[in-house]
Each structure stands twice: as C-alpha cells, then as structure tokens.
Design a protein that fits this description.
3 copies of one chain form a homotrimer. Chain A has 12 helices and 11 strands. The first copy, chain A, is of the alpha/beta class. A 5-stranded parallel sheet of chain A has the order 7-6-5-8-11. A 4-stranded parallel sheet of chain A has the order 2-1-3-4, sandwiched between helices. Chain A has a two-stranded antiparallel ribbon with strand order 9-10. In chain A, helix 3 crosses helix 12, helix 6 crosses helix 7 and helix 7 runs parallel beside helix 8. At the B-C interface, helix 3 and helix 12 of B face strand 2 and helix 4 of C.
C-alpha cells in the first residue's frame, strides 16, 4: 500500500476530462484531499503549491460559478488563473485563417501549468465535438487539460456533488439518487447529469433516471453507468413517469436537458428545444413530489444556475433540504484538490 | 476609548454602499488608515491581509479608474480581484431565464471575501434601481458589498476626495466647496456629487451647490446634506447663478450631471440630456471664474474622467491648483483601507 | 566596467518601444538576464521583484501569446497583470467625448508599475499612428511604457527571436537570416519583421530581405537596418526573387505583411490586401526551398500565430528544424527580464 503522500504525487500531470477516465482509487485521493482542503481552507499545507504558476482558462462559453470557483481555487493555492475567451484568440475556424489547436496547445503549455476548457452545446455543430476538442488539446499539450464543463462531461461538478452528498448523507453506498429531467426554458447540455450517472454508482449509489419519452441521454454513457452500477452492486432504473420515480429516493437531482434531436443540419435548434420542453409542466420537482421520497425527507441537489419555477419550485430550491449552495461551494474545494494533485508542487 | 486596533476590527464584515451609512467614527478610522497606507504603500503591516483571498468585482458598467484602483488595491494587500461583467453571468432578467440575485449572491459569498458592484445610469430603467440592486445583494451575501459607483452613491470616490482635500488644505473644517454643474457631452450619474454632498459636511465643510434651473439632485440626498451641515455647524447654499457662486470658495468641484427628467417611459434618454446640457456653455469652470475664489487660489477637484472643454477648461484642469490626479491616486489608498477593514485579516 | 548588478539597475524606469531605442549594452543586459531566467524559471532570485505590484496591459487588439506571456511573466515575478481593453475605457476619440491620453496616462502611472500597450494595423487610420500613441503615453507616464506589439515595432518579439537563435545556433554573428514575405490570408502588420530587421544586425547577422515588388517595408526602418549592418560588418541584401533568396541562408523567417498601399482614405483596406496577397502562391516557405539553405539544414522561425499553408507548409512548420515553439516560449522569459529590469525591485 502506498502512503497518502505517494498516492497524491501519482496524479501529477493527469488530464481530467471525465471522472470515468480516473480509477476509483484516484477519485478517492481527489475527494479525500478536497474534504481536507475545505476543512483547512486558508491554512492547508498545500496553500502555496501553485506559487508563481498560472492556470489558463479558455471559455468558449461564459459562466458564473465555473470561472469564479476555478479562479478562486488558483488564488487559494497561491497561483493565478487567466480568463481567456475565444474572441481574444485568433484561432482557425472553418471559415477564417487563424491558429491551429496544435500550435495553440503547444505554446500554452509552455506558459501555463494547466489548461481549463469550457465548451457547451451552442458552440458546437453536433454532440461530441466539444469532447473531441478537449482530447485534441490533450494530445498536443504537455500540461494537464481540465474540463470546466463540455458537451459530454463535467467532472468537477461531479466531484463537488459527491462531496456535498457525503457531507449531508455520510456514506452514500446504498443510497438512491433520482436523476430527473425538469422542464425548462434553457435547453441544457448533458454534461452535468451524465457526469452524475458515471460518478455516483462508483460510490455505490443506486440510480433512478426519469425523463419524458424522447429525452434519452447518450446511450454509451447510460450503458457505462449501468456497468458501474453492476460493479458496486447498485441498481439502475429508467422510467418515463414524472411522479412515481420519487418514491423512496434519498436525493433528487432535477435538471433540464435537451433532446437527442437538438442538433440537425449542422446546428443546435435551441428555441425549438425550449418550446418542446415547456410542453411538460408536470415535470417539475415540487414539495408534493418530494413528500414521496424516503420518509418525505429527500435532499435536493442541482449544479446551478437553477431555472426556478421550471426545474424546481422556489419552495424546494430555497428549502431546508436543498444542498445546492453547499455543492456550489464544493466546486472550489474539489477544484483546488484537482489542481494541487495534477499541477501543484506537493 | 477603544484603541486603534480594536476600532479597526469592528469594521470587519460591514457593507459600504454610501458613507452616509457609516458613523463619523467609522469614517475617521477608514480615512486615517487610508493616509497611513498611502505613506507606507508597499510596506504597511497590512500588506498581506488578503493573502489567498479574492475580491469579486461585478461591473454592469465599464470603468477605467474604478477597475484599476480596486484591482491594484487587492493586489497590494496580497489578494486578487476578479473582473466580472454581466454578459459573462447568466443572470435572470425580465425577459430571459437565468439566475436570481439570491442564488448568485449566496454562492459568490462562498467564493469571495467581498463583492464590489458598479451599476450606472444607463443600465437601469429608473433612478434608484441600482441602489436597490446593491441592497438586494447585501441581503443575501455573507460577505461585504462595496459600491464601486452606482446610480445614487460613490462612497470610495468620496473618501478619496476627502483624503485629497486633507492633503492639500489640512483640516477642512470651515472650508467651502462649490459643487458646480458643468455642462457636458456625457450626461452623467448623480453618484459622485451626491456622495460629496453627504460626506464633506460631516467633516465641517460648507457646501455651495450651483446648477441651472431644472438640474436638481435627489431631494432626499440634498435634505440629508443640509442636516449633516447643521450637525457640524457648516452652511449649505443652493444657487442657479453660474458665476457669483465662485466667490470666496476654497475648492471647486465642477461636474456634469443629468436632469431629473432623464428617465421616462422606462428608459434613460441620454441623447436628449446631452443636447439639453450643451445649451449652457457659460456653465464651465475656467480661469476667469476661478479668480473669484478665495484669494484667487481656489483648488479644483473632479472624480475623472474629465470632459475637458465642457466641465472645465484645459488651463484649470492641468493647472497647478488642480488636485485631480492626487485624488484619483487616493482611490487606491482609500479602497485598500476599506478592503483591509471590512474583509482583511488585520 | 560596471558590475552586472549595477548595469541591471541602470535600466529601471526605461520605456521599451523598439529595441532600436536601447543601446547594444542595454540589450545585452536584457538578453543575458532572459537566458538566466529561463534556466531558473521558478527559482531565480528576482522571482519576487514585482511583489504587490501591478502591470497594466492595454490591448487595443486582442492577442494569444502576448497576453499569456505578459500575464504569466508578471505572475512569475510575484506581481499581477491587468488585462484592459479599450471598450472598457472611456477614452476620447475623434467623434466622442472621453478621457485624454494625458489624463489616462497620469493616473495609470499612479496605480501600475508599468504600462503595456498593443495597437495594430486595424485600429489606426494610417501607419505610424500606433507608434505616436505609445510615445504620447510615454510623455505623460511616470512608469515604463512597454510595446506589446504596435504598427511599427515589436521589441519583445525581437528579443525572444534572438534568444531562440542563440539557443539553436550559438553565436549568431556572421549567420544569415532570410526575412521572407509569405503570402497569406491575414494581411499582417510590419511590426515583427521590422523589429527583426533592426535587432538581428546588431548581433552581427546578415539580412536577406525578400518580397514581391510592391511590398516594401518602412524605408526609414530599412535604412536603419542597413546602418546597423554596416556597424557590425554584416551584409544587407534586398530581392524580389521568391526562390534564389534561400541559397545558403542559416534561418528563414517567413511572414506575411501588407503592402504600403494598405491605407488610403483614412482607413485600412484589409480585404483588398488579402486578395492581392493571395495572388502570390509561389511565395511560401516549403521543403523544396528549404533544401537550398546552408547544407539544406536552415532553421525556420516565425512569431506565431502561423498561417499554415500560406506562409509556410505544415511540413516545415511542424518539422524538426522549426524553432517556433521555443521562440514563443522565450516571449515569457524575455518579458520577465524586461519587466524585472525596468520595473522590478532588483
């Protein structure tokens, strides 16, 4: 058995594109350190591990929490984060001359100690392109590539979720999470819910996946989630019923996502998706449904920003069993852990 | 009597939306520390008081001095400032789904040690909305909310003004400031001049407020300024004469501001305001008028950016009795003081 | 003879608008320190020389490498860099009220320890205006003005080039550089190639300048380059032949630039320039031409971003004798050296 310090050092240089790319032991190391860093926020011994170093954050899509949490994470490790937007980069596109990913990545890895990338549904022509882009960066970069949310996955959200569930539920093994399609006016990416499906079962959680017909997620991800469930003895159930699915679950993750028909003709049809989604007003997490959860005391989790009144009622969202603000805070601690492990001098 | 250190610690966690919300003793503490920090810019014992910490700056409106001075202030206390613009935040608006102020503020206060907000005349539908927004943030945030200029007030500008006047005039008690409406092509907010009206009398300065008919400021603010004058034995005079008002004043604050008619139909009519303002070319601070000040040696103060040729002549603005650059520099020191007191480990 | 430390201190406060404004001895000091900082990237004794200090970066034009390399450079000296774009500054323009350069520069130099400026071809109405702007800032600023690339010069690129050539060629005296007009779809500024013409000969390099008829550079710069060549015994040759010029050169610098006809009627005609440029497909650096270089082993240099397929073939650009990524990395080290010398506490 390796000592804690040794296990931590083994993660140096690793990319984090989805938690599914990391072994269970690697995830344990990251989560343990994340909890440790939360407990000792400004006093942890790794607080200087990014001194003089810069983390490059490349946002194809804007964000609130992601930018704030990554930038604060860098600062709290004595490093700096650089906020870059594509308009500030002369990258080659299908229609204009510019720089290739190869050239950009090779140079960026001479300057930064890590590169974060965020690219969501509306900046791509078809599902999967964002993941391809991250893996192309990873191919040419000498420093870790960290997903700050992309079309397929959102690993740091997954880790923050898990921290929050562990804080509020203790050992999550054997607990059940309802991953629930909430209707909404935003037509959201699949990244956060897919990451949940891939990560939670590795810690032994049962999954109930509920959505209207026509709102299937990536079949490969769902298949992988089922496998992870099998490996840990957890159950995986999929249903189209908006109410029954709440029965006896321990926690509800209500989130809107777009349908597999969202892309056609080489572009995202967001407005169509929104209109289609709004036809399912019964798909909302509210107090009545929450009464069906285990002992009527199920928790509520969400990656934020919340589309209140669509995905969830104000009553549940601001209520005493909502753990969303704690989970949002955990983004900071989870990312500090990931950055310290993959980029830091520890 | 509390010792200096104890008085300083009492300000931890306080919001600063206008200096009028602070007691005179609290303002004394802030100004004294600001002068101290200017004298020991890179050597002050509080130079590490924001180490590992992040100040979140939320700019609905762009700025030059405000961003530079707050960001440098954070850096000079060993912290970091994060520059955020609303386009980078998916906040809920009247017409689009997004995040509520409640959700944004709760999470931001988990990441940052303070939140600065700037929202000026053109980002609101009626006077007072900016102030309401800051107070809504303050309601949900666990960390201090600092105004970086909003429609009603500009507290850090007021503190920087006061520092500059103390540097150039010594004790300001009994001195007279002419707060003068300069014509101009910018149709400016009321925040800086209103803050001056509220702060200067608390240090015993007499106010002469001069503007053309139809350019009244917020009557509540003017009333409060009169009260502060009474409390310190200062005088308050209001006039519509563009020249006589210069007689025997010690310092002239010439600044354009828009009329109370600027908002109607739910929006700001900036172009109309500019056209109306340009009909008063005699309302400019120039050498001829400055000769009327006390011994012909009145100082010139302005929060910058200056609209030269409208608000003030080049001759006065770049002349030997203009203290504008010193006041601009003082933004840095005043803000370092406010940040150290309200957010720092001191 | 002054000791190294003394020579270094003499550069404190100096502007860097072009390397041609610095003496050869000053350039030697900067390059020597740059190599030293590369060798001891995070351990150099000057690693804290910008502690608590802020470098203000003013980008009229966006950039990849320039922003990243300057911001990382500041961080690696324990300082901070602030990224500012003109849209965030209410500066006076020909058609709108706003702040003068005098006012902006005076105040900025109260906040920052140095000011970087970047202004390229499309933000000016005629060649030379960018250089005038930098010199106007320098007139009013009390802190160093550093060019981060402008219409005429790009001094930090020149220094990074020289570092790269010294790393790959040893002493460059007597070596020959082909400065070659590559055709392209970007119609680029003259700054990088002109800086090369001015800097390389001071280290004794021969220049071969090759471009189609009608693509002359600034005659004053070319004349100055010839003079520098004379001073060090180097040769200067100008030709319109796209192939013969490769014969026996040691290194090829292929880069597109626009023609002297690019500006007329008070604006840049970029599209016309691109169309005109694309009529010269034979002007590309490819393997066939590279075989003509000395022993067929000439190096390839370029300031990036590269317009692959126009300026240079993929084969050469990604090939074993391309030093472009090393040169890009050197931007970081060269700028750390310049910042430490002109702004740091060393």
């Amino acid at each position: 058995m390796l000592a804690t310090e040794q296990k931590r050092k083994l993660l140096k240089g690793k990319d984090l594109i989805t938690t599914a790319d990391w072994t269970k032991e690697e995830l344990d190391v990251a989560l343990e350190l994340a909890h440790e860093m939360k407990a000792q926020r400004f006093t942890h011994p790794y607080s200087e591990c990014l001194k003089l170093k810069t983390f490059l954050m490349f946002f194809y899509n804007p964000s609130v929490r992601t930018r704030q949490s990554f930038e604060c994470a860098s600062n709290e490790l004595s490093g700096s984060a650089m906020f870059l937007e594509p308009k500030a980069m002369r990258l080659k596109t299908a229609t204009s001359a510019g720089e290739t990913v190869e050239d950009a990545a090779r140079v960026m890895s001479r300057y930064g100690v890590g590169i974060g990338l965020r690219i969501l549904e509306d900046k791509i022509a078809s599902y999967g392109e964002g993941d391809d882009l991250l893996r192309e960066y990873a191919q040419y970069s000498d420093v870790p590539i960290i997903s700050m949310a992309h079309d397929k996955y959102h690993p740091c959200q997954g880790l923050a979720d898990m921290m929050g569930m562990q804080e509020h539920m203790g050992d999550v093994k054997g607990k059940t999470c309802l991953v629930y399609w909430g209707h909404g006016a935003l037509a959201r990416s699949w990244c956060s819910v897919q990451e949940a499906l891939l990560l939670y079962p590795r810690y032994g959680m049962n999954i109930v996946l509920a959505h209207p017909e026509g709102y299937d997620l990536d079949p490969e991800v769902v298949e992988k989630s089922r496998e992870f469930c099998k490996q840990t003895g957890a159950t995986f159930t999929e249903t189209n019923d908006p109410v029954e699915c709440y029965k006896n679950v321990d926690i509800v993750y209500s989130r809107n996502w777009m349908s597999p028909q969202a892309y056609y003709g080489g572009e995202l049809h967001k407005q169509e998706e929104i209109e289609k989604s709004l036809k399912y007003p019964q798909w909302i997490c509210d107090e009545d449904k929450m009464k069906l959860t285990r002992n009527g005391k199920g928790l509520f989790i969400h990656p934020m920003p919340v589309d209140r009144g669509h995905e969830v009622s104000d009553e549940v969202c601001s209520g005493p069993r909502s753990i969303i603000v704690d989970v949002a805070e955990n983004r900071l601690h989870a990312q500090k852990s990931v950055m310290a492990l993959t980029m830091g001098d520890i």
